[in-house]
Amino acid sequence: MIKVGIVGGTGYTGVELLRLLVLHPQVTLQVITSRADAGTRVDQMFPSLRGFVDLLFVHPDEASLELCDLVFFATPNGIAMQQTRALLDSGVRVIDLAADFRLLDIASWEKWYGMKHACPDLVAEAVYGLPEINREKIKSARLVANPGCYPTAVQLGFIPLLDAGVVEASSLIADAKSGVSGAGRKAEIPALFAEAGDNFKAYGVAGHRHLPEIKQGLARITGNEVGLTFVPHLTPLIRGIHATLYGRLTKEVDLQALFEQRYASEAFVDVMPVGSHPETRSVRGSNRCRIAVHRPQGGDTVVVLSVIDNLVKGAAGQAVQNMNIMFNLPENTALNIVPLLP
Amino acid sequence: MIKVGIVGGTGYTGVELLRLLVLHPQVTLQVITSRADAGTRVDQMFPSLRGFVDLLFVHPDEASLELCDLVFFATPNGIAMQQTRALLDSGVRVIDLAADFRLLDIASWEKWYGMKHACPDLVAEAVYGLPEINREKIKSARLVANPGCYPTAVQLGFIPLLDAGVVEASSLIADAKSGVSGAGRKAEIPALFAEAGDNFKAYGVAGHRHLPEIKQGLARITGNEVGLTFVPHLTPLIRGIHATLYGRLTKEVDLQALFEQRYASEAFVDVMPVGSHPETRSVRGSNRCRIAVHRPQGGDTVVVLSVIDNLVKGAAGQAVQNMNIMFNLPENTALNIVPLLP
Amino acid sequence: MIKVGIVGGTGYTGVELLRLLVLHPQVTLQVITSRADAGTRVDQMFPSLRGFVDLLFVHPDEASLELCDLVFFATPNGIAMQQTRALLDSGVRVIDLAADFRLLDIASWEKWYGMKHACPDLVAEAVYGLPEINREKIKSARLVANPGCYPTAVQLGFIPLLDAGVVEASSLIADAKSGVSGAGRKAEIPALFAEAGDNFKAYGVAGHRHLPEIKQGLARITGNEVGLTFVPHLTPLIRGIHATLYGRLTKEVDLQALFEQRYASEAFVDVMPVGSHPETRSVRGSNRCRIAVHRPQGGDTVVVLSVIDNLVKGAAGQAVQNMNIMFNLPENTALNIVPLLP
Amino acid sequence: MIKVGIVGGTGYTGVELLRLLVLHPQVTLQVITSRADAGTRVDQMFPSLRGFVDLLFVHPDEASLELCDLVFFATPNGIAMQQTRALLDSGVRVIDLAADFRLLDIASWEKWYGMKHACPDLVAEAVYGLPEINREKIKSARLVANPGCYPTAVQLGFIPLLDAGVVEASSLIADAKSGVSGAGRKAEIPALFAEAGDNFKAYGVAGHRHLPEIKQGLARITGNEVGLTFVPHLTPLIRGIHATLYGRLTKEVDLQALFEQRYASEAFVDVMPVGSHPETRSVRGSNRCRIAVHRPQGGDTVVVLSVIDNLVKGAAGQAVQNMNIMFNLPENTALNIVPLLP
What we know:
4 copies of one chain form a homotetramer. By secondary structure, chain A is α/β, with parallel strands linked by helices. Chain A is 30% helix and 20% strand. The radius of gyration of chain A is 19 Å and the shape is globular. Chain A has helices spanning 12-21, 42-45, 80-89, 106-113, 120-125, 131-139, 149-164, 193-196, 210-222, 255-262, 312-326, and strands spanning 2-7, 27-33, 70-73, 93-96, 127-128, 143-145, 172-178, 201-202, 228-234, 241-248, 269-271, 289-294, 301-308.
């Protein structure tokens, strides 16, 4: 059994990790920390877990995380980097669901996240936890940087095109739409029901933290910097990301075959039949990414539609997938979930 | 393995049955029928099932249902009663998710459902599939009438009070609110997003088909006819029923203890702590009913709050629970689901 | 022209007042205060007002409210009572949209609102601003206590029954459902889209601040204390309240005629035809209350359905209606609005 | 007073026309037709209109439309073209809210709309009713083709760029998101609350009827055919369109000044301040289009954000704006509406 700890269990990625882990046959939940809610029963804060979790939130100072085999950080940015070295030194493996170890360029990270990085050397060691790209490295990783939600949906959609070198890498466009849970379980006015409900808007057009992460990931494929316009939008949806991706084709190619072959052996990427329009609800609650590829009117613009559940493949589910890989378990352990539709 | 057939697989109770059954370790899905969509792949209509179901919808005339061990009817009212006798004669057991076998009073059924009943004698044989009341009879039943969604939430909330005889049975009130999926996957204007969204209304105040079903169920407890005012409402929710129940107390009683004791051994009824307000999302996607009991200002009115997912405990989940009981399986097989929150 | 000031213009009742007042032909907006957002353009915070409002939020200390003819308080509870005396002394009339002047019983107010009242004598002077009850007194009032949202919907539904003395006043039930804007524009987790969306729950069953306000209002009608069970619910709706009211009939009466006669001359109360189910969207954005009355199965329980827009008839619209009455304007000035449907 | 008739008053554009016209000081509503609902009171179908409309739906065969000054067609495609010639011959002016007169290329129209056109000569006469382009021609038009919802939002966003010739016209991208009311008040499964709610998807990527309309409109500006990739999406919103537009800049230009100057005298196009992200709710219920222009990271991609209410500026409001122009009324008569927020 894998002894697991969760740091920061009161946010949406925390409760989603719990939803998945309580049914994982190889996991023992040791400890869940919360600074603000220490002493509260986990299932009092999240009644959906009544009958599944018998733990209380523990104050971080009183949690013996070093006794765990694996610790998940489901914390705000900037927390994991403070505690990871000590855990690694104790032989604990770490998966950070926040952004602390995602950007190799420390200066860029410090600019986008507005703080000084505590351990740049660990950034260099960390493995970017997108299994469809990095599965082998993840197996032996001590420290995994779990990808962001937008970066997961966008990269999985662009990878086959960039792998094959069939689009102009200097003029990519990612028009992405996210459900409101992507903003986290934080008391902020723009995320109120009466603000985000029955409303649609773009945000962060001038720049969003996920832009450098996506560009770094795509550059890994092409070997060169890519040009990307990334426009995120907030849509009145609880869960779900829909990325609509545009590229300019530079050569003739069977797009459908290209995508199907790239993901033929991937359990969690589903290339849909020609002409499909994946819906976010078709992956609700599951770790699946569904993709469709179009070439409207046979022109030179390729359109890729890529959907994930931002809390699962975009966060907690991908973290569990990474854990399964790190511990040599079947990759879909505890992730064999039928999406909830309707 | 139980060989299972589903008649009418294109509605919400059908796809929900599929969601639950494809992960059931003792079930083999033999056949799923649809008159209108015969020949279509099931996972083309419901892409959430891609990777889980490999079947096509089969025309009812070409489905060899008599080869099944169990057939679920997820059909409109009036279909199951046409086909059940032949199936029972072939040794197939039947669970009807519609209303054909719910009302013992045939005249009442014919009035509320507006058609002549095809097999009154089978109504007498059918077992009302509310396990918390009828578990023993369900074990050996050939034919189970799966309860309606409102009746499940309302009966589970009133049963402890009526069992104990502590409320005036002549003046019960059930103010119930349902998500829109309760109206089924039918093309009807009032269920459109632009009609039911951002809107709240009562309906059927003069009379609703679930009223006689609830009254029949409650009269089973009291031994006498009960007086019930039942007001259903439509709320902009996909899944979920919230029943707010009112009764006039006739004697002093420890309400919390009463409820906890009544449901102490029930896996799917969760009596919440004193002072709780169960949310519909706390049971989303699961077979749980959560209940809280209140006595505002210490007055003589008891208020019971009862929530279920109308498609699970209110339909497909309860049907699977009944199947598990009928086939001597652990009652929570394939139903050990953590609700999806948020 | 009436010179109007608004204290606390950044909440939902504030922006709703602005929506109505900017098109009011007899109103000049003098000043809008905000402690936190002083110096910000009003239409920067609320882009819906671009082209209609050219003002900046002013710090309360710098607002010359005493130059106004009328000041609206759209503030949290406990603010208006601090400033009202000085304004009245300067000859300014006041409408408080919060609860400071609603409860005549000061001890009760202090218990429910958790603070000491600053000016009990003004409570005695204040007129409760429900025009359908108090129109004459409102005309000459210096200080109007604008009713709460639930109290408006519930009282308008019960008044005809209590006026006529046809129900048992000791056992009234009000099962009320509110949209999330009723919680205000405050950064609180339970009001997040990802919390309140696709979710339904009761709250405050043990006691809610609107309970004493409703009981006080109903007792005004009957002359005696009434017995009321009040259960509020949160529903995933931006605007709207639906009150479902239950009473036990004590004598035979033509309920439809009773309601129609009571409200025959009321512009903002619409008694719907027999058998109707008013929808919250049928009053969205308007000052109308729509009511239907039912007697299910001819029993002794009367069911009243009453809907309002909580921000209009339940707050800002009723405040403007009161202003119109106080300044001898046609009561529907600036309130002749067609509800937004869909 | 303008005597107005509405053909097809039971859909969303019909009820929205009614919402606007009942408060129009220069309009007399003569007749509203409905084939299916003839004889029904208009305010029985749409209770939001109680107190504002006293008419019944009239069967088309019994409506004396020739007595009107102006007839609006709020009908499905293919109806207006059958009746327009007779009306014009009787001296009645016509505004068609459907697509019958929008495409000059008859062959293209017949391909996209799947029927033979009944009066190609009238297409040549019809004026495309986008006032920001065609105001002068609209003044004297007998027949106005009211633009589609997507075409309005997309054209208004691209016009300044194409007018100034600062983007590559061969590679435009319009990623557009619409609320569900855009699908009309039709009983179709994909528009059900339980299908479209909490869900997001693209549709019609291979081709959408609004594509040729937009391309025709943009070609009017450039004088040449444009290259456009148009991807519409369905978002869980009742009203609202958000178009995110992408173009490749071909020369340096002050984008903000360009947009502000182009629309300086337009009452219904609001160019927002630099850095803005217009929300759909900021135009809810109003005839406004709000636009923001961005150039992310100073690159060569310009991003335009354009929002409208699809039922107002995208349909009924623009139709009333056109009527006001045709009858020499102030253009904002009956359209001086503050958007409903929240």
